[in-house]
């Protein structure tokens, strides 16, 4: 009995068909049955690819393209839930094969060795999701599906698979149990809709470590399928079943005409169609993993053309760009260290107002605010309050606020951020001896001075008090109040209270994200700042071909490009108002400019 179970296990885990079988052509034929426009799309794309190749054939060294990858592991058994290391081994194989860094490329027969190409394409596991959340580029989905076979089931959560990440930004690779004999299949450019675009590989043929099928244990199934995804077809031209199996073509001019696929590990040469030997070592043939090890220059040109023609959105994807560094935050505190804090005015006004700052037992003042100053460009993520009393007859709230300092005589001016907080919540926190922390959903940016405090909506009905220092320090004079007539007064004012105090409020301020401020400074300058839409960059006659990249405060890349003139302008008037961080690279020097866009 034990032997029987073991045998079944062996078969189910490790058996794959002896001959390689790629499902890409069959998958495409199924798509074409249901969509008459696919062939026309492919013809149009083919003409664009040929045009690109003819216009760029002599361009020499090109940039190295970097493709962000997400690998979706869709598993039903532990064996199918392949390790992160196995996934990484596949990425390593792709990078070696597409950069001609695979050691076995040296096995290429001499008559073809000059054709073997460095395709100058690299692959990286995604470091950020479409929502800019951190990721290792691998998703894992437990499924009840036994196996998937060819089709879109594995590409949809609704059918037991995993939905694609935006395929304009990532190469989606699904790894699952494909029904024998299919090792993998891919979507050629322009043949399917975005949610189904990508590559599917059997888990027994993915990567080069783990429990892999013996003939497919070097990651070449994925190298092959990604070749399809870049618009390569099989090197024999997929005409093996036609009357003249030498008539077809793979649209690549340096792969020899070949009658049909080669399987296993043939000795070279095995000739057909009058060639000097089938190029069975080509990644787009059907040989075993150990016996395929090259793309040709013609295949490379075709793939580069496909990237530029139909997959160009990947070239501006930030899927592999590192997430901004964690926020570095501090608290600003205007209460002098060592000061004793007491409930505001509790001694002086005990008989009159029972010490309350505002509310039913006191004056009907509207707002209280504490003045702060900070370096420009800080982010105020939240405020901390040490309230001493809070009560409400109903569902009372206070509005926690940040004001700029643009009011008369430097008083609080425009409210730049606010959040409502329940008085009952504050009362509960007071009874638990807890501070009240309020985090802003959209943290405002501050240049210089600002005020932090709160506004009481119904001082006739509700009550609030806050701890303060009340010892008339010379270094205080930082608290202001807004009286029932909406007039702002400093606490030293005879119209307010003739006492200088600081309220127990702290501001949680953070550095901008995404930029290392200490990079070596280049000579560029940017102006004006703030800008109402046009920003000018003066490169000081250094390095006209400088690259620029702009980040929003949450680390998103808002734009990038090249400055071709020593004095260049950008129009960012379409962007949302806010702070943007421009990083300019002039050769090995960087300069950063924090630009505020106002509207
Ligand atoms: Zn194939």
For this entry, give a set of tags.
nine-stranded antiparallel sheet, binds zinc ion, Immunoglobulin-like, alpha+beta, Collagenase (Catalytic Domain), Jelly Rolls, disordered N terminus, 599 residues
Provide a compact summary of the structure:
With 599 residues, the chain is an alpha+beta fold.
3D architecture notes:
Helix 3 (37-56) crosses helix 7. The strands form 6 sheets. Strands 9, 12, 14, 15, 16, 17, 19, 20 and 22 form a 9-stranded antiparallel β-sheet that branches. The chain starts with a helix and ends with a strand. By secondary structure, the protein is of the alpha+beta class. Residues 1-14, 345-356 and 514-520 have low confidence and may be disordered. The chain has 3 domains: 17-316, Collagenase (Catalytic Domain), CATH 3.40.390; 329-510, Jelly Rolls; 525-597, Immunoglobulin-like, CATH 2.60.40.3080. It is elongated and about 105 Å long. The chain has helices at residues 2-14, 24-34, 37-56, 84-98, 110-113, 220-229, 297-310, 350-353, 423-431, and strands at residues 65-75, 121-125, 138-142, 171-176, 184-186, 199-202, 263-264, 286-287, 329-333, 342-343, 358-359, 367-385, 387-391, 397-404, 415-422, 436-439, 445-456, 463-469, 479-482, 488-490, 502-503, 505-510, 525-527, 534-538, 546-552, 557-563, 567-571, 578-586, 589-597. It is built from 9 helices and 29 strands. Residues 22, 24, 224, 228, 234 line the site of zinc ion (ZN).
Helices and strands in order, then pairings?
Layout: H1 2-14, H2 24-34, H3 37-56, E1 65-75, H4 84-98, H5 110-113, E2 121-125, E3 138-142, E4 171-176, E5 184-186, E6 199-202, H6 220-229, E7 263-264, E8 286-287, H7 297-310, E9 329-333, E10 342-343, H8 350-353, E11 358-359, E12 367-385, E13 387-391, E14 397-404, E15 415-422, H9 423-431, E16 436-439, E17 445-456, E18 463-469, E19 479-482, E20 488-490, E21 502-503, E22 505-510, E23 525-527, E24 534-538, E25 546-552, E26 557-563, E27 567-571, E28 578-586, E29 589-597
Parallel strand pairs: 1-2, 1-3, 1-4, 4-6, 7-8
Antiparallel strand pairs: 5-6, 9-22, 10-18, 11-18, 12-16, 12-17, 12-19, 12-22, 13-18, 14-15, 14-17, 18-21, 19-20, 23-24, 24-27, 25-26, 25-28, 28-29
The site of zinc ion (ZN) has 5 residues, from α6.
């Amino acid at each position: 009995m034990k032997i029987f179970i073991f045998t079944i296990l062996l078969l189910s885990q490790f058996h794959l068909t002896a001959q390689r079988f790629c499902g890409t052509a069959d998958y495409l034929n199924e798509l074409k049955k249901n969509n008459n426009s696919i062939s026309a799309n492919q013809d149009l794309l083919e003409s664009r690819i040929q045009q690109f190749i003819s216009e760029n054939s002599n361009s020499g060294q090109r940039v190295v393209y970097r493709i962000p990858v997400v690998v979706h592991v869709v598993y039903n058994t532990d064996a199918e839930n392949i390790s992160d290391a196995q996934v990484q081994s596949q990425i390593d194989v792709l990078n070696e094969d597409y950069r001609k860094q695979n050691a076995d490329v040296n096995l290429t027969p001499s008559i073809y060795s000059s054709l073997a190409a460095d395709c100058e394409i690299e692959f990286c596991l995604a470091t950020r999701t479409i929502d800019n959340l951190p990721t290792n580029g691998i998703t894992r989905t437990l499924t009840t599906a036994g196996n998937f076979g060819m089709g879109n089931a594995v590409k949809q959560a609704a059918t037991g698979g995993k939905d694609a990440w935006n395929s304009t930004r990532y190469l989606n690779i699904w790894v699952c149990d494909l029904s024998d004999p299919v090792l993998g299949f891919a979507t050629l450019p322009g043949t399917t809709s975005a949610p189904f675009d990508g590559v599917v590989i059997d888990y027994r043929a993915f990567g080069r470590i783990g429990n892999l099928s013996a003939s497919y244990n070097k990651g070449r199934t994925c190298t092959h399928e990604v070749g399809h995804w870049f618009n390569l077809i099989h090197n024999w031209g997929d005409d093996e079943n036609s009357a003249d199996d030498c008539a077809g073509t793979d649209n690549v001019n340096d792969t020899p005409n070949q009658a049909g696929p080669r399987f296993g590990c043939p000795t070279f040469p095995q000739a057909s169609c009058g060639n000097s030997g089938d190029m069975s070592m080509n990644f787009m043939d059907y040989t075993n993993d150990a016996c395929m090890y090259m793309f040709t220059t013609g295949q490379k040109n075709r793939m580069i053309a496909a990237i530029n023609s139909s997959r160009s959105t990947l070239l501006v994807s930030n899927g592999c760009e590192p997430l901004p560094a964690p926020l570095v935050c501090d608290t600003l505190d205007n209460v002098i260290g060592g000061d004793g804090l007491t409930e505001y005015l509790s001694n002086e006004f005990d008989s009159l107002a029972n010490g309350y700052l505002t509310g039913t037992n006191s004056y009907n003042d509207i707002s209280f605010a504490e003045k702060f100053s900070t370096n420009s460009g800080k982010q105020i993520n939240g405020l901390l309050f040490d309230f001493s009393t809070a009560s409400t007859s109903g569902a009372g709230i206070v509005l926690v606020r940040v004001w700029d300092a643009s009011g008369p005589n430097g008083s609080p001016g425009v409210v730049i951020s606010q959040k409502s907080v329940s008085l009952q919540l504050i009362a509960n926190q007071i009874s638990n001896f807890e501070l009240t922390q309020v985090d802003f959903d959209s943290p405002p940016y501050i240049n210089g001075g600002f005020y932090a405090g709160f506004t009481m909506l119904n001082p006739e009905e509700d009550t609030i008090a806050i701890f303060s220092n009340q010892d008339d320090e010379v270094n205080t004079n930082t608290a202001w109040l807004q009286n029932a007539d909406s007039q702002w007064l400093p606490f030293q004012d005879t119209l307010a209270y003739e006492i200088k105090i600081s309220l127990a409020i702290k501001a949680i301020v953070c550095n901008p994200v995404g930029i290392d401020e200490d990079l070596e400074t280049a000579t560029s300058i940017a102006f004006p700042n703030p800008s109402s839409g046009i920003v000018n960059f003066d490169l000081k006659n250094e390095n006209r071909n400088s690259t620029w990249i702009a980040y929003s405060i949450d680390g998103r890349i808002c734009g990038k490009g090249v400055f071709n003139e020593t004095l260049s302008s950008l129009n960012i008037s379409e962007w949302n108002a806010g702070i943007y961080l421009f990083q300019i690279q002039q050769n090995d020097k960087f300069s950063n400019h924090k630009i505020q866009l106002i509207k």
